[in-house]
UniProtKB/TrEMBL annotation:
InterPro entries: ThrE-like_N, ThrE_Dicarb/AminoAcid_Exp
PANTHER family found in the cross-reference section: SUCCINATE TRANSPORTER SUBUNIT YJJP-RELATED (PTHR34390:SF2), UPF0442 PROTEIN YJJB-RELATED (PTHR34390)
Major subcellular site: membrane
Organism: Paenibacillus sophorae
Domain Threonine/serine exporter-like N-terminal: 1-229
Membrane-traversing stretches: 92-115, 121-139, 151-170, 176-198, 210-230
Family: Belongs to the ThrE exporter (TC 2.A.79) family.
Pfam families for the chain: ThrE (PF06738)
Alphabetic keyword roster: Cell membrane, Membrane, Transmembrane, Transmembrane helix
Location in or out of the cell: Cell membrane
Protein known as: Threonine/serine exporter family protein
Membrane topology per record: Multi-pass membrane protein
Length: 231
């Protein structure tokens, strides 16, 4: 769940509920965005698990929630729950990379219209946003540093938007840029940060908020660098 975009308080609640259903009502868990600590009792030494990769796949989060409910209601056994959890863990992402890129491209074009861009601005935004999202996916695999991947992708979006307008394809560079960067905006991170803070998970909320701020800063920096050179 933590690897696929769930809030930290939801992960803790799911773990303790499943432990209680298995006969460990005194279980305790402590979760941050990168670490899980869990113990079944106050006397047992806690076990630590490090989370190294994080992505967004809310379908897996929903499936684990369903397994937790079934286990708590005694509809499945512990062995069946373990088997289903293993299947969820081994399953591929709900949507292929190409489908994600196509969705990002469509979202970029639609956001351009929402932000009062014209139809002729939405057409280049389809291409720019799709290519920008594809560059993020590729660069994260290549560099393993999210900040630089997002900065480079936003710089590419800014440059392509400027070139399209200069070539006569589109009329407003700012509208194309705004629509194209929307698929990169960390909406889920911001939402989870606020929800964790409201639930009292201050460390998780602040760390996710800081990650969202760095992402927004990378996007703004990439666009700003390009515009400062071309203007």
């Amino acid at each position: 769940m933590l690897q696929n975009g769930a809030e930290t308080y939801r992960v803790e609640d799911t773990m303790t509920r499943m432990a209680a259903a298995l006969g460990f009502p005194g279980a305790h868990s402590y979760v941050t965005p990168t670490v899980i600590m869990f113990t079944t009792s106050r006397t047992e030494q806690p076990k630590l698990f490090r989370i190294e990769e994080r992505t967004t796949d809310l379908q897996k989060v929903a499936e684990v929630n369903d397994i937790s409910r079934c286990l708590s209601q005694r509809q499945i056994t512990s062995a069946q729950a373990r088997e289903r959890l293993a299947l969820v863990d081994d399953a591929a992402h709900a949507y292929s990379v190409w489908l994600q890129i196509m969705a990002a491209a469509l979202a970029g074009g639609c956001f351009t219209i929402i932000f009062k861009g014209s139809f002729w601005d939405a057409l280049p935004a389809l291409f720019v946003s799709g290519l920008g999202y594809a560059s993020v996916v590729y660069l994260q695999r290549l560099v393993q540093i999210k900040f630089f991947a997002e900065l480079t992708a936003s710089a590419l979006i800014g440059l392509l938007s400027f070139l399209f307008v200069q070539a006569g394809i589109g009329s407003e560079t700012d509208k194309i840029i705004i629509g194209s960067v929307m698929p990169l905006v960390p909406g889920l991170l911001i939402t989870n940060a606020v929800r964790d803070l409201m639930a009292g998970h201050l460390i998780s909320g602040l760390s996710k908020g800081a990650e969202a701020f760095l992402t927004a800063f990378a996007i703004g920096t990439g666009i700003g660098l390009v515009l400062s050179f071309v203007s």
